[in-house]
Amino acid sequence: MHAHPDRAALAVADNAQSAAAAICIDASHDLEISQCATRLRLLVAAGFAMTLLSASLALDWWDGLGDYDTAMGYAGVVVFGSITCWLIWMLPAERGAVVIVTPYGIRDLRIGNEFLLWDSIAGVSGEECRGHKVIVLTPTPALQRQLSCIRAASRGAPADRIVIQSEGLTTDFDTLLRACRDCHAASDSRTALRRDRDHGAESPAAPAS
To answer: Which SS3 state, helix, strand or coil, does residue 161 take?
Structure first.
């Protein structure tokens, strides 16, 4: 059982109403979600302004500045300049999709490179954390053990829950949650059909009358 193409098209139609919406769906109905360019561009502009202000202090463009102000200017150029360069590098045009939702699994490059199969996800829910809505994936015990080994080595987050934030993406929370739930439900249906088919194949043939 595959994700219905009308459902994927509906998700795109909902997001098209927002100026920041930009979800790409390919022939297999995968959702490739990028970061919101508008928010990053505002941060780049703010970083550039702070870098310019720090440069004015470092180069003593204003009269009456002391050595402390000049030192702070040089420090500001280094700090804000580095942050601005990193933000420019993170622009969606350069980085591409960060969240990929397919009928078979999900990957969020912001938290790791693992492609999580829906078969290894026990549940999908929406929660509010510190005033922000997030999507919580509950992994199966087998996946928890696998993630524990990976994240223990990298000192990552606990493996008993996987949190996916919708902030900063080109889609809204409700659309992303609906896509995750639909794909997870479709995966459960495929698993149930496969289990019934395998069970039928293993059952002994009925005796001839």
So the answer is: coil
Q: Cβ neighbours of residue 25 under 8 Å, at least 6 residues apart?
A: 8, 9, 11, 12, 31, 32
Distance CA 7, CA 40 (A): 30
Give dist(CA 42, CA 88) in Å, integer: 11
DSSP three-state, residue 139: strand
- Whole-prediction pTM value? 0.57
Cα separation of the two ends of the chain? 36
Please provide the DSSP assignment of 7-34 as one string.
HHHHHHHHHHTSTT--EEE-TT--EEEE
Q: Give me the count of residues in the chain.
A: 209
What pLDDT, in 10s, does the model give residues 9-39?
A: 434 334 433 333 333 333 346 788 887 777 7
Note the pLDDT tens digit of each residue in 196-208.
777 776 655 545 4
33's torsion region: left (phi>0), alpha (psi -120 to 50) or beta?
beta
For 16, list phi and psi in degrees, rounded to 5: -65, -20
Phi/psi region, residue 29 (left: phi>0; alpha: psi -120 to 50; beta: rest), is left
With H, G, I as helix, E, B as strand and everything else as coil, classify residue 40: helix
- Please state the φ and ψ torsions of residue 55, each to the nearest 5 degrees: -65, -35
